[in-house]
Amino acid sequence: MLTNTMYEAIVGHRSFVSSKVDMITALILLAVTSRVAVSTPAPITTPQNAPGPVRNLRLLVPAPDRILVAWSEPLVRHGGIAYYDLQVSANGIPLRDRMARETTDTHYVLHGLRPYTNYRVTVRAHTTLPGEAAYEEARTKQSEPEGPPTNIRVYTRTAESLSFAWDQPEERLRNGIITRYEYVFFNKDDGMHYIVRSTRSTTATITDLLPDTSYSFKIKSYTEVGSGPFSDEVAGQTLADGEIATTSVTSTETETTTVLQPTSPSSTPAKKVSTKKQSIAYTTSTTQRSTPIKAKDTTAEKYLPTIKPTTMAAGNASHHELHGRSPVSTSVVVLATVCGVVFLLSCLVCVLVIRHRSKRRAKSLIEPVRLTFHPPYANMP
Fold it and tell me: What confidence category does residue 132 fall into, taking pLDDT thresholds of 50, 70 and 90?
């Protein structure tokens, strides 16, 4: 129904109504539009997409067993960030118990890690889809070793000394770089002769001991942080007076054939070159009498006489371990002896030459001078 207000609004706008027909048309349109309801605006949301990588990813190492992970939100989100997931790997191996850790914060603390281990941490943002991954690597700090040195053994013994050798702790129990060792040595029978020493080597020799006496040895390792546990005690007994060591020799020979191919068609045909490599293994045991060591290998016969009486634990050892005697050291001794003899002979020759010249000079000085005397009036008339 057309109200007075509508009629006045239409009549008042003479510019829109120029004739009676136009007025009737306008009235009809106004009546129709006044009965149509207009809806309110409705928002339209496009689907979310995968976000970009997180920013400023950094790893902080406050302790040997933890890493603090922090990051910033992605610059490109493509929707609302629902959560972040973290994945951790140690030395390139994914950790199953630390896969896909989820958090809504922009930081996370990883606990229960191994000391002195390389870790890679991957962080990924999620909307309805996973985003691009970002990763960083860090190494946890060193800690005290969790295990003792391994393979502790007595490798040389005499009537007055014992030599021990050992290996580093197991790699997974080192917790850092081994910087030194500390060992304890004492008389197992009466507890006397107690020694505590530190060394950077993996061998130790204790001297001035009693013959035919049992001693105990234990050792622990150090990193820059502190020391690990002591090893179990290892017993070693010195030889009795007059007891010496006999050595058995095992010589093995391997042959390697190398084919030399020609470098050009005009070169000589291919040749086969055979090279032989010989290795000698020494095994020592103790005995009360001295028997010569016999070996078929000429190399062994050449160097075995230079080995001093000693005793080694049953097993194989190179000739370098037998009191430091080796083919190289023997050659050096022979060369030094020859040089000494030549030097002494040269000095003797020089002394003889000097003495001979001195005698000749003295003889020429004391030789009588012949003088001729003429009477003063012998030539006068």
Answer: very high
User: What's the rounded Cα separation, in Å, for the pair 183 and 352?
Assistant: 60
H-type helices in the chain, by residue range?
A: 4-12, 20-33, 171-174, 298-303, 327-366
Report which residue type is found at 63: A
Helix and strand totals (H; E) in the chain: 5, 17
Summarize pLDDT for 187-231 with one digit per residue, the tens: 877 766 688 999 999 999 999 999 999 999 999 999 999 999 999
Tell me the mean pLDDT in the region 84-109. 84
The predicted model scores a pTM of 0.53
Strand runs labelled E in 130-174: 130-139, 150-157, 162-167
DSSP string, 73-124: --S--SS---EEEEEEEETTEE-GGGSSEEESSSEEEE-SPPTT-EEEEEEE
CA distances from 2 to 17, 22, 28, 55, 164 (A): 16, 16, 9, 65, 118
Q: What is the DSSP string of 243-275?
A: -EEEEEEEEEEEEEEEEE--SSTTSPPPEEEEE
